[in-house]
Design a protein that fits this description.
Two copies of one chain form a homodimer. By secondary structure, chain A is α/β, with parallel strands linked by helices. Helices cover about 40% and strands about 15% of the residues of chain A. The first copy, chain A, contains eight helices and eight strands, in the order βββαβαααβαβαβαβα. A six-stranded parallel beta sheet of chain A has the order 5-4-1-7-6-8. In chain A, strands 2-3 form a two-stranded antiparallel ribbon. In chain A, helix 1 packs across helix 4 and helix 1 runs parallel beside helix 8. Chains A and B meet through helix 1, helix 4 and helix 8 of A and helix 1, helix 4 and helix 8 of B.
Chain lengths: ~190, ~190
């Protein structure tokens, strides 16, 4: 199974807050840990954390350094391996450029969200596209109350929302990442 | 889809630490939040947090109260709904008795773990058993480095481990809960 051309990004801006206003969220330490470990387990090539706030990126880089090269790297070698996938960027366009530099092509953008409607890709359909190997794919996750419209408009595809047996649907973004990566790449 | 007779529990003892010694872990605030939200989304009837340390249970109960009845209940009503599923217990036997009190029968125990071997149930097979409605089912998750042997020995079934495309397999327990509940009850 090839996940060679598959990337994920966690956006802290532009996202909605709980009142539906476009806003910027803070980088959460637990997101770095949980999502890096999921990304490594499911063969994701790179996990981008996107925030326009330089001080927050600097703090996140300190955390990444601790587990990559500091005391954490010998205390927990499996964490070191997961953190090797993490990259901090200031905006989505920097992510697209970074992937273009690595593989010579900008990625197709796939957005996620609990309330996405319209034509959506199933996990099987997206897996097939990635495995065709023609283009790199970037799966975007929003913090707060989800990705802002201006990001949704830039997407090439929408990923089918996760839904349980009832109406209630308030998963942490960490859980959404785990579930969608398992649907795509779990054995 | 009926998940009426389906329960989960997160055990903080007896579990292995990273050196393979049987130990007790601390209750983590993030586990309460993330797992309660997943449990509510996927129709789990009750989410038990098991710790033998009374002070830790008391602290966790304070947190649950905040989101259930305190300021958090009006600040975030969807969190209130998720936290309504949470129950603190001192040991696995108390969980079994609580379920027996509720439905008149002790549950069948299903254990999870990244390194489980031997005969394991797939999600489809477990779903079928739960839906047959004969018995309540309790899915157990271990913190630290997983459930201790004395717990595994008490299980009626083992749940097929999650596996990505490669060898690496170090998911946070929060991610494992999200993935297995989605495999069982996701649409």
């Amino acid at each position: 199974m090839s996940t060679q051309n598959f990337y994920i990004a966690l956006l802290h801006s532009p996202v909605y807050d709980k009142k539906g206003r476009v806003s910027v969220t803070s980088i959460a330490n637990i997101d770095i840990h949980d999502i890096a470990r999921c990304a490594r387990t499911f063969g994701v090539k790179r996990f981008y954390i996107v925030s326009p706030i330089a001080e927050q990126r600097a703090l996140a880089e300190k955390i990444v350094f601790h587990w990559q090269s500091g005391f954490g790297s010998t205390y927990n070698p499996s964490r070191k391996e997961a953190f090797a996938l993490v990259d901090l960027k200031g905006a989505l366009d920097e992510v697209l450029e970074d992937i273009a530099c690595r593989v010579g092509k900008k990625p197709r953008i796939v957005v996620t969200g609990a309330r996405l409607a319209g034509e959506c890709l199933s996990a099987a359909a997206l897996r097939e596209k990635v495995q065709s190997g023609e283009d790199p794919y970037l799966l975007l996750f929003g913090t707060g109350s989800g990705l802002a419209e201006e990001i949704l408009e830039r997407a090439h595809h929408r990923f089918e929302p996760i839904q349980g047996p009832e109406e209630y649907n308030h998963l942490p973004v960490r859980a959404a990442v785990a579930i969608l990566l398992d649907r795509l790449w779990g054995k």
